[in-house]
Amino acid sequence: MVRPFAIAPAVLLLTLLLSSTLVAQESTSPVSFVNDVVPVLTKAGCNSGPCHAKAPSGQNGFQLSLLGFETSDDYEHIVKENRGRRIFAPVPEQSLLLLKATAGSPHGGGQRLNADSHSYRLLLDWIRQGAPSDVGTAPALKKLVVEPSRGQVMPNATQQLKVLAEYSDGVQRDVTSVALFESNDKAMAEVNAAGLVQVSDIPGKVSIMVRFQGMVSVFNAAVPLGAPVEAVPASSNFVDDLVFANLKDLGIPPSSVCDDATFLRRVTLDIAGRLPTAQEAETFLANTAPDKRDQVIDALLASPDYADFFASKWNALLKNRRDDASDITSNFAFHAWVRDSMLSNKPYDQFVRELLAATGTVIANPPVAWYKRVKEPKQQLEDVAQLFLGVRMQCAQCHHHPFERWSQDDYYGLAAFFTQVGRKPTSTRGEDMIFHRRGTAGATNIRSGAVVKPSALGTVIPPIAPDEDPRLKLADWMASPANPFFAKALVNRYWKHFFRRGLIEPEDDIRDSNPPTNPELLAALEESFVRSGYDLKQLIRTLTRSKTYQLSSMPNESNLVDQQNYSRFYPRRLQAEMLLDAIDDLTGIRTDFANLPPGTRAIALPDNSYNGGTPFLKVFGRPENESVCECERGQTSSLAQSLHMMNAGDIRHKLNSGGGRVDLLTKSTQPVEERVAELYLQAFSRRPTPEEMKVAVDYLTAPQTDAAGNAIDPQQAQKDGFQDLLWALMNTKEFLFNH
């Protein structure tokens, strides 16, 4: 390999003459650094995070901006940095930029380009032309179009995409070869570097994100199952209309409506976070009123258990946690404020307004406690955007968001709303008083140094006077019916709570490149929520009264593969706190939590510091309240969980303790069949089947002997039998899952 520094002067002169001839022969059209070179580097992955855009200083002495968002910096690094060592004009083919990319010179990133590819020739021509810069003068990309933008693709079929870029000079170019493609669900569809989409046999909606020069476009595909949908349950509201219409389009027949016992257990767990009592189950099953399901929903929403359960949900998302003993006052006050808000059905927009614009002390105004956990404007804007708007802004702090339209100015414009939040210590250790500082709100863009005034994700906010609290202006914008994020983020979050999967998934990642699986349904839910005055209980009524929510979890012969269209109820494991309470209800022995009233349920704990003296809550995934993402809660199964359920000391204690359910059942004079039925009603909200009853009764009444063959006292044998039966029921999937 001939290196540039080894070329003799005479040879160099000859090379210069030859290269000028080559330029005249081969480089007939100008190559744009901005619109040609940078896209090639992006497609090759050179300016990706793991490569030369790695923070903070690139890779192996060579730094590029992430995905080419800062073209002026990239030109400096490529052409001028280190005395221009990466570009060798006398012999362009010997330029380090090309040798590294083609692995002609050792390269940690491996070969990124083939020497016979169009991308290689484009870079070569640019160097032959003198590596000119058109930063600031190149036509700007105005629109990115993918063709087709949507369509139906049959299972196991392919679809070729074409990407067109439209520029400010009116030119339209085919940029398919240098665009980046990514599937939002690789199990449903994969796409190669050339834009060829290969779908699988999983029915539903899948999207392919297409990215080019900071812009994103999306191809939305419907993959039908094609089974006949001859009958669907009668619709209860618009949720059913839109879900069942989608199922008909996709050819996915829904399951039948679940039975009463399943519905009662499901809705009680989802609204109140607890199991129905055996008495509640018996009463409901005996009720013949046609609207008895609606009656149960209304009763649950009016109960303190609803407030406890949803307060637990919001406390985790709002980071109400205990870091030291001084937190106890603010923890309890904040939890009580959230619970009271849920119990009184405070409008959601008012709830958010009181939180964001909180001033004063925790004792006088509990939502101030949020500012104790989230102290910096950057933290505040990121949490507010993700939790209340469903927009993840973290990437935009340092560069243009790679999957969205948000820039650094959008990031700092949102941060500016929080820059006038002041705090000063109070007489209570660890507590601050929060107040609005008079002054002009603005946040400094760390890259440009410019002061950015408050702006709301592309929405211009009128000038804010120094004596006005910018946070109130933010709350006004958020609660506006025209806001495209606020109501959508909440209804999508609550949809996931009741249906396991959000219409947009993840539930807090709303963007153009991550479209909903049923956009018409999401829009209708959003409109209904706004029209109701942001009524959370009414939203829950709408969801749980639908036949979609009440479908059986048992698949039919066609819809087992469906994972996103809600043709059946998707079972989910009980959350840690719910499961502990369910075990307590079944065994009749409540877990004691230090310094809390006896009988306090796990779902009513004010913060994350309580464990009841066992690792149960941690083992089963209770979050530490450190993130606004619900993904912090562990919902996957593990060996530790199985072992804990089978043989942990706290489980054995609940089975053996005097005064518990086993003890009461053993001492009861009721027929053994009624005692077995009580267990099933408490565990599953149903009576046992004849086969289950026979197995249980036979086991409980059969003579028992010890290891030596001696007969065991009948009462002790029956106690052991009830312990075994209760333990067996507790370890079934029917108990561990909401189905």
Summarize the structure in words.
The protein has 739 residues and is an alpha+beta fold. Among the domains are: 4-128, no CATH class; 141-223, Immunoglobulin-like; 347-473, no CATH class. Strands 2-10-9-6 form a 4-stranded mixed sheet. Strands 1-4-5 form a 3-stranded antiparallel sheet, with no helix packed on it. A 3-stranded antiparallel sheet has the order 3-8-7, with no helix packed on it. Strand 15 (455-456) and strand 16 (459-460) form a beta hairpin. It is globular, with a radius of gyration of 32 Å. The model is unreliable at 1-27 (pLDDT under 50).
Please outline what is shown here:
The protein is α+β, with helices and mostly antiparallel strands and 739 residues long.
Low-confidence stretches: 1-27
Shape: globular
Q: In terms of structural class, how would the helical and strand content be classed?
A: alpha+beta
Largest sheet: 4 strands, mixed
Residues in helices, as a percent range: 40-55%
Alpha-carbon Rg, integer? 32 Å
Q: In whole angstroms, how far apart are the ends?
A: 67 Å
- The tally of beta strands, per DSSP, is 18
Count the helices. How many? 28
Strand content range? 5-15%
Largest beta sheet: what is the strand line-up?
2-10-9-6
Which features characterize this protein?
alpha+beta, Immunoglobulin-like, 4-stranded mixed sheet, 3-stranded antiparallel sheet, 18 strands
Secondary-structure blueprint of this entry?
Layout: H1 9-26, H2 33-43, H3 71-84, H4 96-101, H5 118-128, E1 141-147, E2 150-152, E3 158-160, E4 162-167, E5 172-174, E6 180-183, E7 189-191, E8 196-199, E9 204-212, E10 215-223, H6 238-250, H7 260-272, H8 278-286, H9 292-301, H10 304-317, H11 328-343, H12 348-356, H13 370-373, H14 377-388, H15 408-415, E11 421-425, E12 432-436, E13 443-444, E14 451-452, E15 455-456, E16 459-460, H16 470-479, H17 486-499, H18 519-531, H19 536-545, E17 572-573, H20 576-587, H21 616-619, H22 639-647, H23 649-656, H24 661-667, H25 672-684, H26 690-701, H27 714-730, H28 733-736, E18 737-738
Parallel strand pairs: 2-10
Antiparallel strand pairs: 1-4, 3-8, 4-5, 6-9, 7-8, 9-10, 11-12, 13-14, 15-16, 17-18
Helix pairs in contact: 2-5, 6-18, 7-9, 8-25, 9-19, 10-11, 12-16, 14-15, 17-18, 17-19, 24-27, 25-26, 26-27
